[in-house]
Structure formats: structure tokens, C-alpha cells
Design a protein that fits this description.
Elements lengths: L2 H18 L2 H4 L12 E6 L3 H16 L6 E8 L10 E5 L6 H15 L6 E7 L2 H4 L9 H14 L3 H9 L8 H6 L4 E6 L22 H10 L6 H6 L18 E7 L1 H14 L3 E12 H14 L7 E10 L11 H12 L6 E7 L15 E4 L1 H9 L4 H6 L3 H8 L2 E2 L10 E7 L4
Parallel strand pairs: 1-2, 1-4, 2-3, 4-5, 5-6, 7-8
Antiparallel strand pairs: 8-12, 9-10, 9-12, 10-11
Helix pairs in contact: 1-11, 7-9, 12-13, 13-16
């Protein structure tokens, strides 16, 4: 393959993975029949707007429901809204929550509390819902919640640790949305963006029992050296903020189903690669860890491939992290992974790699124009060298976005309206 053909194949594989996880593909088959009363749609996350759009269309066209029996609100990331007629769609901050998310969460809780025994609360949950649904516990204001979120994101903490804190500082996460709706039935359909598809971690588990405790939340802050604000420390020491557990009556009439998971996106990408004659080796479907360290491991595998009779793709999923040490760097784990590959594979020929977040945004400031990741190959280093750019320097500054803006290797997809975690492919071609 030529360099352009390698890049094109990587992009096709990534796009196939994203398409397989879109709500239009995975949601309709699982939407339940309407109850005697209303269908109350409560959606959140980067796919929340698309889920609301699909659900509204389904109930209108399949069952003829009107606005008297179909109501709801979806809170999604800025730039991810979709057109709906009866279900309200709110754009809010991610990864740092904002005032729009605060109001959207308040309206969501209020609507859940209005549900009656003849209604069905249909929770459509996608990754990003933890930031979009922000409802701080008493004594905690939005500014403190924002600062805590930023500190956790910079710390390199994995998503389950971050969410253990979020759940104990919230009036909607960690099963509390189910408590608000009780005793109305709650049916949650989720698109998973977390390793191992743990329902209590997806969007911080708003409708399921929370296995973590206040003590776990305090331990997470200590483990990742996040000094809590006094109000946070007080909240995490208040027994009233303990999340509901499995024996709570709130879960007596709830159900939960994952309708799409990272493994589905991985499978779709694998099919695309294999149809192009590539041998695929899965190096991990639920990988966690520091982005640069995982990239170094994958680069070592790539360098060790020899005697190839056909191209080989090393493919992986999961959610990597970045411990931010640079002062003004920009980027996320996929871009840092790709930048580390460039640094590790200098001098190696006939390779290309793509690392991208399936939601279309990798780090960044919450803009729809943020990069999804990067696509790199030996020419990336050649362009960097020609411009006097040292990949190691940009790694030290955690400025992967700055590096790829200069080399032109950023991956830009725009909002995909779904989220099934990261997808990374390292393609090693037959030597010329």
C-alpha cells in the first residue's frame, strides 16, 4: 500500500467503528412499547441528542404518540444537539460542567419526580452524561464542582475513580435519578464508553445501584493527589451523601440494558481491515493506562513484527489517560498516544496509525471543532523535522494538539453523536 492508501484504510476502519455505534443503528430494536401513561425520555451524554431524536421518531411513527404521551429532555455536549419536536434538547459543557448542564439536570430531576405509576421513565444514557448532568449536593456550588472536575482530569485518574467522586457529589448520579423517579418504572438503555461496560460507571450510573462509597471517593482523591476544596471534603464526609445501594427500594422497578459497547465498534473496524486483506491482532479491547506508556508498548510490538506476508494491524480499545505536567499543552489521550508513536517509531518505515475518540473529541476545550485524535506515519516525523519540531518536547509539555496542528496530522470528524470509547490501530505494511 502507498502511504495515502494506508491512511485511507485506517480512516475507513475508524468510521466503520463509529457508524456501528450510532443510536440510529443500535437503539430502535430495544425501545420498549409505550405504557398506559406517558413515555418520559431522559437522555444525557454525547449521544443524548441523537438518542432523543431516534426515540421521538420511533414512538411517533410506530405508536402514533403525541406530545400528551411523549415528553422529555436530553442534555448533550455543545455542538451535539439534534432536531426534535417534543423532547427538549439542551447543549451543555463537557468535560467540565457548566450552567446549562446545571439547569438541564435540575429539569431532568423535576421531570423524573413527576412520573406516575402508569408512566415509563426511559433513560437513554451515553458517555459524557456525567459532565452533562450536573446537580451538586447541598453545600456545593458549580464553581467548586468545576474545579474538582478539572483537577481530576489533569491527575491521570481512570474513569471509574473519577466517577466515584462525581457520584458522591451529585443529586442525580449514582442511582439517584432512579430514586427521583420512584415508584415509577425506569428502563435505561445505554451506549457504553467505559472498559468492561460497567453500568455503574457509564455516565456515573444514574439509574443503577452504586457499589462505591464515600470512603472510595475520598481515597480516589488521595490516590491521585487531588487536594479537595473544603466544601468537597465536607460533602464527602457527610453520610447523607452516601449513594443508594442494591437494597434501596428505588431499584425495585428498574431495568438496564447496554445496546452498544466498545467491542461492537472494534468488531466493525476489524471487518473493514480484514476485507482489505489485513491480518488483525487485537492487543486489548479494554486497555487503560498512561497514553504514552501504552503507545511505547504497542510500538515495541510493531518493531518486532518481521517476515510479513501481508499487512498486520494492531488494534485496541479502552480508555487511556494523561497525567498533565505541561503548563499550557493541549490534547487528549489519543493524540498523546499518536505523538508517542511518532517518537517511538522514528526511523521505521511502512507503518501508519490512527488513534481517535469515537465521540469526535479528544481532550480539547469542549468545542465541536476539537480534534478526535490523529493519523500518523513516517511522513509525520519528516514534516516535524522540516519545521524544527521535536516530538519529545511536545510530549513533555502534553501539547499533542499543538504538534499535530503544525504537522497537519490531526483527525477531525466533528460530533459523531455517539461514544463507545477510543479506537486505536497501528498498521504495519509489508516492506518495500
Amino acid at each position: 500500500m502507498t502511504p495515502d492508501e494506508r491512511r485511507s484504510l485506517l480512516r475507513r476502519a475508524f468510521d466503520a467503528g463509529v457508524a456501528a455505534a450510532h443510536p440510529a443503528v443500535c437503539l430502535p430494536a430495544h425501545l420498549p412499547a409505550p405504557p398506559k401513561g406517558r413515555v418520559i425520555v431522559l437522555a444525557a451524554g454525547k449521544g443524548g441528542g441523537a438518542c432523543a431524536e431516534i426515540a421521538e421518531k420511533f414512538y411517533r411513527e410506530t405508536y402514533g404518540l403525541g406530545p400528551d404521551r411523549l415528553v422529555g429532555i436530553a442534555v448533550t455536549r455543545h455542538g451535539h444537539a439534534r432536531p426534535t419536536e417534543w423532547i427538549k434538547v439542551v447543549e451543555a459543557g463537557h468535560p467540565v460542567p457548566d450552567a446549562a448542564g446545571l439547569q438541564g439536570a435540575a429539569d431532568t430531576i423535576a421531570l423524573a419526580e413527576q412520573a406516575g405509576p402508569d408512566d415509563l421513565v426511559l433513560a437513554l444514557i451515553t458517555g459524557g452524561g456525567s459532565a452533562n448532568w450536573v446537580a451538586p449536593v447541598d453545600g456545593l456550588d458549580l464553581a467548586v464542582k468545576q474545579a474538582t472536575t478539572k483537577a481530576l482530569l489533569r491527575s491521570g485518574a481512570p474513569i471509574d475513580a473519577i466517577n466515584s467522586v462525581r457520584k458522591h457529589l451529585s443529586r442525580i448520579k449514582g442511582g439517584r435519578l432512579a430514586r427521583a423517579a420512584h415508584p415509577a418504572p425506569v428502563f435505561a438503555l445505554a451506549i457504553s464508553d467505559v472498559p468492561r461496560d460497567d453500568p455503574s460507571v457509564i455516565a456515573s450510573g444514574p439509574t443503577v445501584p452504586d457499589p462505591t462509597t464515600l470512603e472510595d471517593a475520598r481515597a480516589a482523591l488521595a490516590r491521585f493527589n487531588v487536594e479537595p476544596h473544603p466544601d468537597v471534603a465536607a460533602a464527602l464526609s457527610n453520610p447523607a451523601n452516601e449513594s443508594p445501594k442494591a437494597d434501596d427500594p428505588a431499584f425495585a422497578n428498574t431495568s438496564f440494558l447496554v445496546v452498544s459497547r466498545p467491542a461492537d465498534a472494534l468488531a466493525a473496524a476489524i471487518r473493514t481491515l480484514e476485507e482489505a486483506g489485513v491480518e488483525v491482532r487485537v492487543v486489548g479491547a479494554d486497555i487503560e493506562g498512561e497514553a504514552r506508556e501504552v503507545a511505547a508498548e504497542h510500538a515495541a510490538i510493531a518493531r518486532g513484527l518481521s517476515g510479513l506476508t501481508k499487512p498486520v494491524a494492531l488494534i485496541s480499545g479502552g480508555e487511556l489517560t494523561v497525567t498533565i505536567k505541561g503548563r499550557n499543552g493541549r490534547g487528549g489521550p489519543n493524540q498523546e498516544y499518536a505523538l508517542s508513536l511518532v517518537n517511538e517509531l522514528g526511523g521505521v518505515a511502512n507503518w501508519a496509525a490512527l488513534a481517535g475518540d469515537t465521540d469526535g473529541a479528544d481532550g480539547g476545550g469542549g468545542s465541536p471543532e476539537d480534534p478526535a485524535g490523529a493519523v500518523v506515519d513516517p511522513a509525520t516525523l519528516e514534516r516535524a523535522t522540516a519545521k524544527g519540531l521535536d516530538p519529545a518536547h511536545f510530549l513533555a509539555e502534553n501539547d499533542s494538539t499543538g504538534f499535530f496542528e503544525a504537522t497537519g496530522d490531526g483527525l477531525y470528524t466533528g460530533p459523531t453523536c455517539t461514544n463507545v470509547n477510543d479506537l486505536r490501530i497501528v498498521l504495519v505494511d509489508i516492506p518495500d
